[in-house]
Structure formats: structure tokens, C-alpha cells
Amino acid sequence: MKAELDHKFSERYKHEATAHYFTPGRVNLIGEHIDYNGGLVMPCAITMGTWLVIAPNDQKVIRFKSLNFEEEAEFELKSAYTKTGPEWYNYPLGVFHEILKDHQIHTGLDLLFFGNIPIGTGLSSSASIEVVMAYALNDYFDLGMERIQLPILAKKVENDFIGLNSGIMDQFAVAFGETHKAIVLNCDTLKYKIVDCNLGEYSLAIINTNKPRKLAESKYNERVSECQTALAQLNQEIKLNNLCELTADKFALHSHLITDPTVLKRATHVINENDRVNHAAKALNDGDLEEFGRLMYASHQSLKDLYEVTGVELDTVVNFCTDYEHIIGARMTGAGFGGCAIALLKKGQEEDFTKQLTDYYTEQIGYAPVVYISEIGNGASAI
């Protein structure tokens, strides 16, 4: 891959690359729509991701090119930038904008991106681009930023520059992922622990529904707002910074304060999903994959019935998985509204599963899904 990217870089920029970086995508194993509610999530990095090849230029410009998109851009090196539109290069441009608030960069850069994360599927292609850019600038210019600062900065780009009210899980997972490990992250305190995620005789199947997920244009921000409404109503009697500070028992004592039945459903999912992450971490520590799979199914059902973010495509995938004998757990992953599901699939059944699911899904939905088999991989790094 490195040699091929070097060749593509030279082809486009007419000079040699000097540094190479990689940041993965991620899946969230369990704990969905919890990150912006200050709770626990359990993401892991995957082996698909974003590569970035760079070299300095003497024109004091930043050039963005990609092997995945036709759009290219060139910006003068200056102290601040504004979002130019929906184009992909606004994500790395936003990273420059944030970093230049506290650091000076005097050298122009030629940048070539390549990613093999399917776009719009909920596997965090945007977080992967943001973090690989932040990691590269920090490393290349020796800016002295600690690793924990990179996902914080990338989240700020997502929130303030791009305009999406997301939490920090995606950026954190792609920065801190470890091979064959999952991360249990408290999205309020950023305290985390690494847990073994030995899937044994099972593989992680990622099923792309092929329904694109235009997240910034979806109902994601609406769900954030509904949770903020629940929090405000609960704070009439108790003092909370985040919904996930509540246990299920304490929530039951105060849930009468939430007057809108839809908002109550949203809050109920958040509280119960937060509990499921703790149970899932224990199941992994105990090597109890059957229990972990049961929790995955329970998570999906809650996201379907209470949070209403699954949709017919994701539900069709999980319904098939429920009846397929070689799968012990499945759920949507990411924000929903399309995108991907994940499943724990017995090794050796990949071909059969892909064929049977494709036939079933195509009959129900009218077009085919795509199945990927991934390992759990490392976070951001120089290569």
C-alpha cells in the first residue's frame, strides 16, 4: 500500500512524499447514542481506514487531493479558515483551523488522502480523516500535543467547523484503538479502560446496508435535542450534568418529570444502554460471548423501539442474523438511519452467510448489501 500511495503522490504532485500516516475507522460494539449523553461506550478500531501521504511545498499553500474524490482544493497558508461547503476536504481543513489557533505552521503542504472505509456507512470515515490529519500535523511539525488532545481537537472540528453535534467516541476510538481490544470509554470524563476482545471462533462481520447515511442532514441533531429536553426536565428535582449519571433505579424515581412520551422513550434507551455497556464489559472479561451477543440484540431492539433510529434496512439485516444459526449477536452500529450493522459470525461461515443474507436482503429491500470481515485493529500511527 505504501509503495502504491507513493507512486500516486508522485504522479499528482510531481515530487516525492516524505511522510505516511494511517488512522482506522471504528465500529461501536455496544453503547449507542450514549456519547453525547456522558455515558459509556465500547468502540473498537477496525482494519479499514484512511491513509495520508504528505510532503512540504515552498509555495506556502495547503493542497488537498484524494484518491476517493474528484474534488481538489488549494488554500493559502494563513491563521484561520472557514468551511467552504459539503466537500470532503473541509474535514482536514477544519483541523488546520483548530491547530493554527495554538500553533504556527510556516511550511506549505501537499496532501494525498486515500480511504477504504465505505462513505456514509457509520464507520467513522470523517473521524478517521480528522484524526489522521491532526496526528500527521502533530508528528510532522513536532507540535508536542499529547494523544488525548487529538480526539478532543477533532471533535471540536466536527462540532464547530462542520456543524454536527456529535460526541467524542468516534475520534477517541480511532486515535486509541488497539489490536484485539475494545475500549470502554466514559464520554463525560474521558476515563477509559482497555478490555480484551478475543472473539475466539467468531469473526466481526460488518454489513453495509448500502443505504447512505447523511448524518448532518438526518435526525441525529433531533435526538440530541430530545435528550437535552429530558435532562432539563429531570433537573427540576435533581442536579445532573448528563443523563447517564442516573442509574436505572434512580431514573425510575424521577422519570415522571419527563412529560413528553417520545422524550421519555429516548431517555429510557439512554439509561438502559449505559447499563448494557457495563454488562458487556463483564461478559468479555468472563469470555462469555453468548451473553455479549444477547446484549447486542437487546441494544438493537432498544434502538429500534425506543430511540427509533434503525429503519427497515438495518432491521432486515438483524432479523436475518437472529435466525442464522452461526451468529450469536447482531446490532446496528453508528448513528443509524442507514449505514452498517455488525454481527458475531462463526469462522468458516463467511461465504455462506454472505450469500444467504444477500439473497434475503435483496428480496426484502430491492438491492444488495455488502459484507466485510474485519479484524480489530490499531489506532492512529505513522507508517
TrEMBL record:
MF terms (GO), sorted A to Z: ATP binding; galactokinase activity; magnesium ion binding
Domain GHMP kinase C-terminal: 280-361
Gene Ontology CC annotations of this record: cytosol
Residue numbers annotated as active site: D170
EC number annotated for this UniProt entry: 2.7.1.6
Location, primary (coarse class): cytoplasm
Presence of keyword Nucleotide-binding: yes
Pathway the protein acts in: Carbohydrate metabolism; galactose metabolism
Residue ranges that the Swiss-Prot or TrEMBL entry lists as coiled coil: none
Domain of life assignment: Bacteria
Residues noted as binding Mg(2+) in the record, renumbered to the chain: S126, E158
Binding-site list for substrate: E32, H33, I34, D35, Y220
GO BP, sorted A to Z: galactose metabolic process
Record keyword Transferase present: yes
Keywords: ATP-binding, Carbohydrate metabolism, Cytoplasm, Galactose metabolism, Kinase, Magnesium, Metal-binding, Nucleotide-binding, Transferase
Biological function: Catalyzes the transfer of the gamma-phosphate of ATP to D-galactose to form alpha-D-galactose-1-phosphate (Gal-1-P).
Entry-linked PANTHER family: GALACTOKINASE-RELATED, MEVALONATE KINASE/GALACTOKINASE
Record's protein name: Galactokinase
Protein species of origin: Pedobacter metabolipauper
Gene giving rise to this polypeptide: galK
